[in-house]
Amino acid sequence: MNGDMLIVLTLALVSLPIRFYHFQDPPEVVFDEVHFGKFAGEYINGTFYFDVHPPLAKMLTALVAQVFSYNGDFDFGTIGNSYLGSSVPYAEMRAVCVLLGVLLVPASFVTLRTGGHSAPAALFAALLVLFENSLSTNSRFILLDAYLLLFTAWTLLSWAMFLKHRNTPFTLEWWWWLSATGFGLGCAVSCKWVGLFTIATIGCSTLYHVWGLWGDLRVSKISFFKHFVARIICLIGLPIAIYVFCFYVHLELLSLTGSGDSYISPHFQHSLVGRDIIETPSDVVYGSIVSIRHLGTNGGYLHSHASNYPEGSKQQQVTLYPYEDENNLWRILKANSSNESEEVQHDILGSDNKTWLQYVRSGEMIKLEHLITRPRKLHSHNEKPPLSDEESYKEVSAYGFPDFDGDANDFWVVKTIGEALESRIQALQSQFQLIHTLQTCALYSGNKKLPDWGFGQQEVACIQNGKIPKTLWMIEQVAHDLLPLEKTRMTSYPRYSFWQKFKELHGLMWRANNDLKESHPYQSRPSEWLMLVHGISYWERDGRHIYLLGNPIIYWTVTVTVFIYMILSFFFKLRQQRGVAERFQPDLLQFYKRAAGFYAMAWAFHYLPFYLMGRQLFLHHYLPALYCGILLVGVSVDLVLQKFKWKLSQWIFVFTLTAIAICAFFNFAPLSYGLPWNRESCIRSQWLPYWDFGCERFSTIGHFANPNPKHAEL
Ligand SMILES: *[C@@H]1O[C@H](CO)[C@@H](O)[C@H](O)[C@H]1NC(C)=O
Ligand SMILES: *[C@@H]1O[C@H](CO)[C@@H](O)[C@H](O)[C@H]1NC(C)=O
Ligand SMILES: *[C@@H]1O[C@H](CO)[C@@H](O)[C@H](O)[C@H]1NC(C)=O
Ligand SMILES: *[C@@H]1O[C@H](CO)[C@@H](O)[C@H](O)[C@H]1NC(C)=O
């Protein structure tokens, strides 16, 4: 084992300069540092933001930033913004990612050694990890993948350790490595949901081994039960606890209102500090002035303003507006009474002791008069709305003139959901539809934003046969001069509990993930990752280009190995079925089958599910699968090495293979590190026609050393 220690140390020492080379360069925002750098600032400011990824890796990034005294004020707006002169400790933040990337190298070695594989094979895999361009590039910047990959690698390592101790159950080491596996799973899935694939991998392996235990008659039923419960606690309970805890810390840190407000429901918003507390009477009577919120989207309040639609009826616009504003105020009137005071029911006596007020009830017909532009009223008619094109959508406008009382197209029936007909409408509680009786449509809003003439506000329409959630509204604030406050209950938004926030965030994250549909110039499909068809441009300036491209030799080797594995396992199955004797010793064969099977399964679990995702995908989504694939290559090489008689020839074989990968690594290094390159080498390196790193940006030999061509011309 001492020899191994030496190798691990040497690996780490060799990796450090290779991975840290020029890591501060460029001192500018690169690729998704735009997002993850900004989020670090949000944690430091404590302002709420919304993102599709779970928070652990982002919180760790923020922690590093905080420790190195970042004050949160840098504008990460676009790729290429310069860090120089700002308080962003970008070098330290990157250094942590690089360090995590470095740790991946010894981790792969230890994982294979723990699994019982030979030192040359394990070293080979570790060197492939070290000299893999995309693993290197991706861990040089402030991104989440370095954290995710290390937690994934840690999980695989711990699991290998656990399996090594599986014959001495319930000892300290056994418990330690079982919990370490669960810890890794929890952390991985708290960085990105991709960690679920790691959970699936370990889950399948666990089932396989538990099934084996069940078949082992030396294990009593009680003992089997203990085994089972231990795994449930460590591999399911622990990861869930870590995941939930991360969200708890996340929400505690982001207690102030911020850029994420517009994504979340009003209840959630009002649980953040810095929002005005809304206190409103809960009773709604005719003549009240109300603001009405859309519930199906987080688009805001029913709104109108003194601008007309440029097309359709050319009447006044009605939109959704996310912020509080006096143009959100509407007066509720009875629909077809021309003289209100005559017909009111005597529900509640006004504070002047003589006017009777009537509650608004479900099923009644109302008009909504826009307070600022009165007597314009909420109106719908048989016109096409500005954006929604289908037949079932009708335009909604604000319509009316002085001396004109309006027409029946101003009438809306209030229909509560989940409450009895004729129940009273309550502010901040009753959820209702507004049904237009003449057009038989319901007031609706989707997530469509109007163009400039509508100030980018959200379209409101009236929809026939719409789904209920997007036609739901709620009265948020009520005011009436005569409402006797001593006789009505005041109400405000209930504060959301942690679990309500947790649940809402997950719904939003899930939807946001699926909505990432628009195409991106550097996106790629899973089928293209196998052959490394596309890369991703991370940053470029003055004849330098950082371009995420894998080491093609390693990508192709992994792919070929996976396919050979599949063919061979099928072939062995065929032979086994016919009872053909193998030349390998059965134990040895079993050992390699199990090891290769595990890593092939890990590769498949981290790769195949991407085919089911409709969202935009990128090459870096393949990296966890690639890591598993490299371990599979290590196992396969170990099997091949069994054929070599002499130890020395094993080493020679391994170093020859490694040398090829290293050559390829250095060939593409200018793209990985963003170093100056020359056009001739670039064109020679254009092995696949789709690699769009753009050789024309590099100068031809003779000029290439000058990083700033403008000066050369002067
Ligand atoms: C944090 O607060 C500072 C100062 O108020 C502000 O300039 C900066 O934009 C905020 N950062 C983020 C990420 O919102
Ligand atoms: C309003 O008029 C309609 C028909 O025009 C009638 O059916 C309805 O009962 C009237 N509602 C009220 C509150 O008077
Ligand atoms: C409404 O009825 C009241 C009482 O009957 C009367 O004083 C008032 O003038 C009427 N208003 C209108 C607009 O007809
Ligand atoms: C209304 O009546 C109550 C008690 O009957 C009295 O306290 C209050 O001052 C009266 N308000 C007005 C405006 O007359």
Automatic annotation (TrEMBL):
Pathway: Protein modification; protein glycosylation. Coiled coil: none annotated. Keywords: Endoplasmic reticulum, Glycoprotein, Glycosyltransferase, Membrane, Repeat, Signal, Transferase, Transmembrane, Transmembrane helix. Residues 281-335, 357-417, 422-478 form the MIR domain. SUPFAM superfamilies: MIR domain. Its main location: endoplasmic reticulum. Pfam families: MIR (PF02815), PMT (PF02366), PMT_4TMC (PF16192). The chain crosses the membrane at residues 93-112, 141-162, 197-216, 228-251, 553-574, 595-613, 619-641, 648-669. Residues 1-20 form the signal peptide. It catalyses: a di-trans,poly-cis-dolichyl beta-D-mannosyl phosphate + L-threonyl-[protein] = 3-O-(alpha-D-mannosyl)-L-threonyl-[protein] + a di-trans,poly-cis-dolichyl phosphate + H(+); a di-trans,poly-cis-dolichyl beta-D-mannosyl phosphate + L-seryl-[protein] = 3-O-(alpha-D-mannosyl)-L-seryl-[protein] + a di-trans,poly-cis-dolichyl phosphate + H(+). GO terms for cellular component: endoplasmic reticulum membrane. Its EC number is 2.4.1.109. It comes from the Eukaryota. It is found in: Endoplasmic reticulum membrane. It is a multi-pass membrane protein. Gene3D superfamilies: 2.80.10.50. One of its GO terms (molecular function) is dolichyl-phosphate-mannose-protein mannosyltransferase activity. Transfers mannose from Dol-P-mannose to Ser or Thr residues on proteins. Belongs to the glycosyltransferase 39 family. This is Dolichyl-phosphate-mannose--protein mannosyltransferase. It comes from Hesseltinella vesiculosa.
